[in-house]
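Predicting holo structure, magnesium ion bound.
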Amino acid sequence: MEKILELSHLGKSFGNHVVLRDINFSVKKGDVISVIGASGSGKSTMLRCINLLETPTSGEILFHDTNILNKENDIPAYRSKVGMVFQSFNLFSNMSVLDNCIVGQVKVLKKNKEDARQKAMQFLTKVGMEPYIHAKPRQLSGGQKQRVAIARALAMEPEVLLFDEPTSALDPLMVGEVLNVMKTLASEGLTMIVVTHEMSFARDVSNHVVYMDDGFIVEEGAPSQLFSEPKEEKTKAFLATILAEK
Amino acid sequence: MISEMNFLGRIIYILQSYGVSYLTGAGTTLLIALVSTVIGCLIGFAVGVIQTIPVREGNERTPGVYFLKLCQMILHAYVELFRGTPMIVQAVFIYYGLAQIWGIQLGMWQAAFLVVSVNTGAYMAESVRGGIISIDSGQMEGAKSIGMNHFQAMISVILPQAFRNILPQIGNNLIINIKDTSVLSVISIVDLFFVHKSVSGALYTYFESASIVMLIYLTMTVTVSRLLRLLEKYLDGSENYELADCMDIGNQMHKKGA
Ligand SMILES: Nc1ncnc2c1ncn2[C@@H]1O[C@H](COP(=O)(O)OP(=O)(O)OP(=O)(O)O)[C@@H](O)[C@H]1O
Ligand SMILES: [Mg+2]
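Done. Tokens:
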């Protein structure tokens, strides 16, 4: 399959605090990659680097073989192809659900309003939020907000969608509704990178799992391999603790 | 003779003789305050937006960034200068001072609008800057994540929220301007206070005239603050939302053909 994204020797420090040391991995079209690891291991930072919400301090990010860290690169245009879903939703609180899903298409993709509305409705229906198009974000539950946030990202028709712990801020009851949407997207072939603590998602839905610790990728592989016969001691220890918590 | 009348009689006499002057004066006051507050807000938003332009990591040493820093310094000086000096002195400086030194003679109306607008702009610039940085950073990140650039995100996402949050301060400025235009009588603007000075000077009825004028000021400021409350309510929208039913969705989908 065609390679979409490749991280090569990616590093990131905040001042003298080194958070990402040497990250290498690549994403092919249709991949569903789960990123797991302890708190503080650098998972969010890596995802935010991919979307350039943080500027990496070393290494390269190749998107279709072009290094997007080159100065001439058009960052907004790149971001419109690499969507992001945040733990804290980040829906625009001054807009209705529908407008949240329209504004990017109109302002960034320069679509006309009617086409944008149709596309927005299509994805809001997909996540089951079409009855709430007139609501403001503050009037929705966490799970509903996250489904709208997913629809907003999908409406840009990105090539890759990044998820940073999309269910961590949700009540247990609402986790399922969001995970179900994500499962559907995965089965439809959307390319996704998902930072998650939901081991069942990592094991059952993704086709590739990346385990991070202290700014390194310690181990990666198919979920069947990584979960049942991890090679590294650190991976074993991490899986043991996290599975014991459940 | 007016000195033989009682309080009420004097009030009625003053209103009959000078009522139109008071109203015209009040009109002038309101006009200068409203127009200058609007212009001042535009200035304040422009300055506040420029003051909060972020510099991308790694770009610190480019000419563009140096130019931005220079602009920000100049704007900062502007804010300090006009917040830190009394408006009455600014008015005298611009109207008489500029003429004396550089031969720039502004009309008194131009000078009046200029002084109040620029003064309001300086106060609003700080409110807007505060309004912008108080918006949760997730809003900007959400906007960037779908490919908006900084200014698109400002216009569509950040400023509408900042505007709502600082609306009480805008109202405050408007009320202050209604009252503070009274200092413009130093440059001969015939505002409400100027009318008061003329009337009370001619009739020696300070108490009565001042009562009338205070009541007019109070009416204007109370009305304005009521109207702003209504605007706030309107902007907040309804507490409830309509669930879109299938028909509605069908209509939305079909509108394209229409
Ligand atoms: N803006 C920042 N400035 C300074 N340090 C930061 C910043 N963002 C993150 N860090 C640090 O980077 C390290 C990794 O953080 P990161 O959020 O990437 O971890 P994570 O793996 O996502 O953890 P979690 O599972 O808790 O979300 C942490 O030690 C954190 O304190
Ligand atoms: Mg994180």
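The interface with chain A takes residues 56-58, 138-139, 141-149, 152, 156-157, 160-161, 164, 237, 240-245, 249, 252-253, 255-256 of chain B (CB under 8 Å).
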